[in-house]
Structure formats: structure tokens, C-alpha cells
Specification:
The chain has a single domain, classed as 3-Layer(aba) Sandwich (Glutaredoxin), CATH 3.40.30.10. 36% of the residues lie in helices and 20% in strands. The chain contains eight helices and nine strands. The termini are far apart. The N terminus is likely disordered.
Length: 194
Amino acid sequence: MKYIFTSLAIGSLTFFSACQSESNGKTKVVMQQQTAEHHHSSTTAQPSIPMAKEAAKQLPDFKFYKVKSGIAFTNKDIPANRNTIFILFDPSCGHCQQETGLLAKNYEKLKNVNLYFISMNDPALMASFLETFGKELVNKPNVEMLYDKNQEFIQKFHVPAQFPANYVYGANGALKNNWDGEKAIDFVIAEFTK
């Protein structure tokens, strides 16, 4: 009985230490499709979706959609001459919610960077995310909530192990840093702004 309780406690700590990117949403579905594909004959397998194993060193071409308007958003729409940050998140991830809240409280330090929250989840689940967890970020000119309808992020940018996954690209489009999971907010802001 003692061992069962210890295993449950360790399992709980592992679950709450960071949100797994495979815990729900389309990332899990895509990975399940790829796994299933290896178990079917070539005549029944679905087409493979290539996934980026390493973070893209240069900002790739992409087409996401603004959650509020549904308007397409590409790399050509990104304002120049500043850092561009992509935060891949799951709306139900507690760590994503916490990071968003802390970023919102520090908005004054972030107003000179492009800040894009991106998810493959249903836009209905994303629609109230900022209003709920990051009120100070709502309607800011440098902040946008983007829907990755075609799973381009995991194909072109990276497949993270945990959410939130943060990617910092410089004004020249080169990757400056990236990390998966929870980090101290002082570290996050310093990386976003340097």
C-alpha cells in the first residue's frame, strides 16, 4: 500500500510540473495518426505530417489565423525591427495560464516586442483565454492570439515536449532562444527583450 501511494504522489508531481504538449488537443491526435500510420499498410495509411524535431533556426513561412477575426496572418504581417515571440500553448494548461498572467502583469516591459500566442486548439476554447488569464494583454497592438488550423507550427517550427513552449526570434528572423515548460518570469522577460 505504501508503494502505491508513493507512486501516485510521484505521478501527480510529474503531471503538475509542466503541461505535456501531448496531453490533449491536436498535437496528440497528429502523433496518434503518425503512430497508427506505422501500423497500417501503405494503402490505408493517412498521409504523413512531417514534424520539426528541432526548433527552426530561421523564422519559417507560415499561415495562421487571428482568433477574433479569422483573418489570415503570415510572417509578412509581423512588424519589423523587434523581437518576435511565439508562445505555443494549450488553453487548459495551468502553466500556460500562469505564464500568461505574469506576462500580462509585466506588459510595460514587453510593449516593444511582438507577442503571439498560438494554439492548435479549437478557436472557441482560445477566444476568452487572454480575457480570463491576461486581461492587461487584451487589445494591445503588439499582442495577437493565433489559431494554427493546419498544424504548421509542429511541422515548421518545432514539436515541444511541454507547454508553454516559448520561441524568441530576433529582428533578423534568427532564433535567439527557445524552451519548453515553466520558467521564472524574470528569465522569460529577459529573454523576450534582449
